[in-house]
Amino acid sequence: xxxxxxxxxxxxxxxxxxxxxxxxxxxxxxxxxxxxxxxxxxxxxxxxxxxxxxxxxxxxxxxxxxxxxxxxxxxxxxxxxxxxxxxxxxxxxxxxxxxxxxxxxxxxxxxxxxxxxxxxxxxxxxxxxxxxxxxxxxxxxxxxxxxxxxxxxxxxxxxxxxxxxxxxxxxxxxxxxxxxxxxxxxxxxxxxxxxxxxxxxxxxxxxxxxxxxxxxxxxxxxxxxxxxxxxxxxxxxxxxxxxxxxxxxxxxxxxxxxxxxxx
Amino acid sequence: xxxxxxxxxxxxxxxxxxxxxxxxxxxxxxxxxxxxxxxxxxxxxxxxxxxxxxxxxxxxxxxxxxxxxxxxxxxxxxxxxxxxxxxxxxxxxxxxxxxxxxxxxxxxxxxxxxxxxxxxxxxxxxxxxxxxxxxxxxxxxxxxxxxxxxxxxxxxxxxxxxxxxxxxxxxxxxxxxxxxxxxxxxxxxxxxxxxxxxxxxxxxxxxxxxxxxxxxxxxxxxxxxxxxxxxxxxxxxxxxxxxxxxxxxxxxxxxxxxxxxxxxxxxxxxxx
Lengths: 263, 272
Prior knowledge:
The complex is a heterodimer.
Chain A: E1 2-5, E2 8-11, E3 16-21, E4 29-32, E5 37-43, E6 50-55, E7 60-67, E8 74-80, E9 85-92, E10 97-106, E11 112-121, E12 126-135, E13 141-150, E14 155-164, E15 172-181, E16 187-196, E17 202-211, H1 214-221, H2 227-239, H3 249-262
Parallel strand pairs in A: 3-5, 4-6, 5-7, 6-8, 7-9, 8-10, 9-11, 10-12, 11-13, 12-14, 13-15, 14-16, 15-17
Antiparallel strand pairs in A: 1-2
Chain B: E1 3-13, E2 16-27, E3 31-35, H1 42-50, E4 55-64, E5 67-68, H2 74-80, E6 82-85, E7 92-96, H3 97-107, H4 115-128, E8 139-140, H5 146-160, E9 164-168, H6 176-192, E10 195-199, H7 203-209, E11 213-218, E12 221-226, H8 229-237, H9 240-246
Helix pairs in contact in B: 5-6
């Protein structure tokens, strides 16, 4: 099993695997000790849950979340020391109104973070994901990819700041936010923000909110798919890549089922 | 055998009339070369037949297999047995080619095809087209070369087995070997009884697939319907004889240059 990590492939085959059940835990903590490599699958991440993550020097953490219940007012904070690496995949099929904050602090030199969010908002859901990445160490790198599908009368907001602080020269950061809107009554906002306080760095962002291009629908329907089938295929294509962050086949199947059910 | 019958077809795009009374009949089993200068309505005709929503039919009729298809949606027309191989197939990021192909194949079947049978016919078709099998595992048309996109169109034709296929410049972007491969596939399908309406600006493709008829579309109308010798004549002398022999003035293509967008960065909030 390999997972994408920045532009490299992260081999998960031999890393120790942990299932973190947050059902009765309000403040779960993950500590990756110096030089170790962990894969953590988080289940039952819930409303009000505040997760703290510490990745010590040369440690690597691959973290996967599957959210299918309400996760309002929850928070994830990660701190990375020298040469630490974090790749985090968050599959959000939760319901109702919620605000989730993710803060990743790249404190040590050469720390790397990859964040991938796939979120589906439907019915009257109101969701906001604030994903902020702070670069403190030198030569730190981060990519934040946030993909959303917004349908019915739902609202979906992607916000957050990628901040390169004084002293973190040689650092690179990239923020992507893309939301596909399906219906006239839904509301989607992608609000990326870059704060730069150092020279000799690379920082960029991209944000797109839009409906499915008519030409895509035309192409698919011209092969016999009706509009619903075509939209479903496109949505799958948009959200399904999140499954590469999950090692377990049953989790991957569960995500596919959730996309199908919510569509 | 299905027949496509187009009568007095008028169509507009963005308020401008492009088709001004097209009459054309194509029988399954025929291969018709659709010729004409740029901007006179060839691609528009194909788009209107398949039902592209951007084109508005203002008069006339199209019957396929004795069914009035103008009242049908695009997917219903495809299910009846029409196929449109596009000039510029779109790239759809994230949609895996094989997922799409299987979904498309299933729309033409009463029972979904089994995984084994699907990969069997996919393997056979990719081999016939000399396509690398990994194209099936990539995002639909994304990052494909021009030639790969065109072969992917013909791959879909092979899998969907339409009664009549509309090919819009399927040879552009193909090198000599690839054109031969595509032509061989078309010839096999011709032998099985598939009908074709083919647009191309090059005589080479027509030499290979040997159309049964050639028609010329000028000023939004079919002005000449003849045999394949028309293709050679146009290849050698152009469309000048239309004016001198038929007395038809060939309108100049006065379309504006394409509007070009050089990318953007920022928030596009289309639905607020």
